[in-house]
UniProtKB/TrEMBL annotation:
Residues annotated as signal peptide: 1-22
UniProt-recorded name of the protein: Phytocyanin domain-containing protein
Single biological process term from Gene Ontology: response to symbiotic fungus
Subcellular location: Membrane
Highest taxon, organism lineage: Eukaryota
A cellular component term, taken from the record's GO annotations: plasma membrane
Entry annotated with the keyword Hydrolase: no
GO molecular-function term, one example from the UniProt record: electron transfer activity
Keywords: Copper, Disulfide bond, Electron transport, Glycoprotein, Membrane, Metal-binding, Signal, Transmembrane, Transmembrane helix, Transport
Domain Phytocyanin: 23-123
Amino acid sequence: MASAQSFNILAILAILVPSILATEFLVGDDKGWTINFDYQAWAKGKEFHVGDKLVFKYPEGVHNVFKVNGTGFQQCMVPKETEPLTSGNDVVTLLNPGRKWYICGVAKHCAVGNQKLIITVLPYTVSPVPSPAPSPTYYGKRYTA
């Protein structure tokens, strides 16, 4: 019985902890999602993990966001079957580890304005919690202050 309860608690924690500890990344920081910005330089040195969120901010109607594959990224090719994100405040939750590619599909913003982002999402890992240090003992007796 106790092991079933422990399992349930651990399962709930495994679901909740990543969302609680998730980092929200404003793509492009104060520049937002725009043309003529080096998103590869922006992403360099950042660690993206499962559960983190990418926020694409831009004036509504001026840009959009498409999730593409590697070929679509290289060729700035918008997938026909995919609907773009268009709100101007688009939030993408990173659900799986691996490479992720995003482009703007407006005009030639991707090809000419370098409006494209590639990241690698790492698996979510929980750091082990160190066990508390034992209370000091003197001659076999615990000392408390």
